[in-house]
């Protein structure tokens, strides 16, 4: 019962911890989804804002015959790129320059910018024009190296430009190394095409574009309130290590992530948010677990004490009830034994009187038989009227002849236990056979032998063979004495099996069958002895 109580409370505690943890994980999952949604919305807003600026610039440039540097600088300055354009490196203008006009364009751009302008790399043989970076704001030292760079010569930039021409909308490139960034960190560029006016989008004039440093772009939307200790990653397309373009490391790598796809300037990207909460239990779960274990242990201890006390009380009640039952049983058994013993004594007296020729013979025969009963009674008293070994009965009855040098005794057989009544009857039979052997048989002469052997016929029956040898010849014509009638009538009746008694010429032979009692039939007495030796505690 204490163990069951402990297991029950522990199971309830485990279920409670499981429910708390499931709720915590669901809450964390909801927070991850919300965080991913906020980050994706913020990134989308940044790109849309940039696209709006680029579209405004494209509209402005498309109305001009020529784009002077001062006008582009003023336009970029009014966009307040330093305050509202975080994540973007800046904004630039790259016109379409045919191969044959590269030299004249370089001279014109040199006059506009006030520096030596050189287009690099030159268009390949498969391309008839270049798209050089002409103007860029803000013009920081790190951005000056981009002036004159032919963006159409690079594959990803070229593909994004062609897609922007096809759709007429802001279009982002895949991840690439920004020319402006001296550390060559990864980034991407958003292009907006500028068409010649009144050509209905058929004549391309150039591109207004905005480069984004991927890490700065991601960091621009992350705040401690939004991210906390979680990790954030931005992938170009599918969330694979090769597509990672920016990341914010979590405090602890757990593998518990939530992903959200987002389209930034017609470019599919994936925002991934990783929880920093690992497999460890939450504080509430730990408190619940410790409290549950403490309650379970205390309940088990109390139940154990109460159960132990109940067992001790019940054991005491059982002991007293068993003592009373044993006392009643012993009283009934004693009455039964006394009646049987008195009946045996009366039978012995009657037979002895009929066979005695004088008062002295009567007294002598009666004395010996009563002593045989007394010897067996002593054995039964020693065993508390429980089972008595067959060998012990033989040794008690043959004790007067065991030390005699004239005869040889041989007692062999397995361990066999006899019931009290059977032991009395068997002892009486052995006394009569021994008395007869001492007067007329093997025990009456020097060199006589007596062998008593017994074997088990079954679990509850043994066969005993009395065999004399080396004694005086046994007359074939002899009277039936008292011992013969005692053995064949009284003993056979008490043992419930016939007795085969033969007076052969070489010696008396007697075969008896004796019931075997199992110790389990006397467990009440054994229990009584045990309880007497170790009484229950109060």
Can you give keywords for this protein?
538 residues, alpha+beta, Beta-Lactamase, Heat Shock Protein 90, 6-stranded antiparallel beta sheet, 5-stranded mixed beta sheet, 14 helices, 19 strands
How is the secondary structure organized here?
Elements: H1 2-62, H2 69-78, H3 81-84, E1 91-95, E2 97-98, H4 102-113, E3 129-130, E4 135-137, H5 141-144, H6 155-167, E5 171-172, E6 176-177, E7 186-195, E8 204-213, H7 214-219, H8 224-227, E9 231-236, E10 244-248, E11 257-264, E12 267-274, H9 283-355, H10 359-382, E13 388-389, H11 390-402, E14 407-412, E15 417-418, H12 420-439, E16 448-458, E17 461-469, H13 482-495, E18 500-504, E19 507-515, H14 523-533
Parallel strand pairs: 14-16
Antiparallel strand pairs: 1-4, 1-8, 2-3, 5-7, 6-7, 7-8, 9-10, 9-12, 11-12, 13-15, 16-17, 17-19, 18-19
Quick one: overall form?
rod-shaped
Rg measurement, Å: 59 Å
The count of domains is 2
Structural class: alpha+beta
Number of helices: 14
The profile of the biggest β sheet is: 6 strands, antiparallel
| Percent range for β-strand residues | 15-25%
What is the rounded distance between the termini? Answer: 22 Å
CATH class of the largest domain: Alpha Beta
Binned, the helix content reads 40-55%
CATH architecture of the largest domain: 2-Layer Sandwich
Mean pLDDT: 80
Low-pLDDT segments, ≥5 res: 520-538
């Amino acid at each position: 019962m204490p163990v069951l109580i402990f297991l029950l409370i522990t199971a309830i505690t485990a279920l409670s911890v499981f429910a708390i943890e499931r709720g915590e994980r669901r809450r964390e999952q909801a927070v991850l989804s919300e965080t991913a949604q906020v980050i994706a919305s913020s990134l989308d807003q940044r790109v849309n804002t940039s696209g709006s600026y680029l579209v405004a610039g494209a509209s402005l440039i498309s109305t001009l015959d020529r784009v002077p540097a001062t006008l582009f600088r003023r336009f970029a300055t009014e966009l307040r790129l330093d305050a509202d354009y975080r994540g973007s490196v800046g904004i630039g203008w790259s016109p379409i320059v045919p191969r044959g006009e590269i030299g004249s364009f370089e001279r014109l751009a040199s006059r506009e910018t006030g520096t030596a302008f050189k287009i690099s790399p030159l268009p390949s043989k498969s391309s008839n024009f270049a798209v050089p970076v002409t103007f860029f704001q803000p013009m920081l030292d790190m951005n000056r190296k981009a002036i004159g760079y032919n963006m159409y010569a690079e594959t990803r930039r070229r593909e994004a430009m062609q897609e922007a021409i096809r759709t007429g909308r802001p279009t982002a490139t895949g991840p690439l190394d920004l020319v402006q960034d001296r550390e060559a960190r990864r980034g991407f560029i958003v292009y907006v095409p500028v068409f010649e006016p009144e050509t209905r989008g058929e004549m391309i004039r150039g591109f207004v574009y905005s480069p984004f440093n991927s890490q700065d772009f991601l960091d621009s939307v992350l705040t401690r309130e939004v991210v906390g200790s979680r990790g954030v990653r931005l992938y170009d397309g599918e969330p694979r290590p090769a597509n990672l373009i920016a990341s914010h490391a979590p405090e602890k790598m757990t593998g518990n992530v939530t992903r959200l796809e987002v389209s930034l300037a017609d470019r599919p990207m994936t925002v991934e948010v990783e929880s920093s909460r690992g497999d460890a239990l939450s504080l509430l779960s730990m408190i619940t677990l410790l409290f549950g274990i403490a309650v379970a242990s205390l309940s088990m201890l109390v139940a154990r004490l109460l159960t132990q006390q109940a067992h001790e009380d019940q054991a005491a009640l059982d002991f007293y009830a068993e003592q009373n039952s044993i006392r009643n049983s012993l009283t009934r058994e004693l009455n039964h034994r006394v009646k049987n013993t008195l009946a045996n004594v009366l039978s012995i007296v009657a037979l002895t009187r009929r066979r005695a020729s004088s008062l002295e013979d009567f007294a002598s025969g009666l004395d010996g038989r009563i002593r045989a009963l007394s010897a067996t009674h002593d054995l039964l008293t020693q065993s508390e009227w429980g089972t008595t070994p067959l060998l012990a009965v033989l040794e008690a009855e043959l004790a007067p002849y065991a030390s005699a040098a004239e005869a040889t005794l041989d007692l062999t057989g397995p361990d066999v236990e006899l019931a009290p009544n059977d032991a009395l009857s068997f002892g009486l039979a052995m006394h009569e056979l021994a008395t007869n052997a001492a007067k007329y048989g093997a025990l009456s002469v020097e060199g006589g032998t007596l062998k008593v052997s017994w074997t088990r016929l079954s679990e509850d029956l043994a066969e005993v063979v009395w065999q004399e040898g080396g004694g005086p010849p046994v007359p074939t014509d002899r009277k039936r004495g008292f011992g013969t009638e005692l053995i064949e009538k009284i003993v056979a009746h008490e043992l419930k099996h016939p007795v085969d008694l033969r007076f052969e010429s070489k010696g008396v032979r007697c075969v008896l069958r004796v019931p075997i009692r199992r110790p389990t039939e006397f467990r009440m007495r054994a229990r009584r002895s045990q309880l007497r030796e170790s009484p229950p505690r109060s």
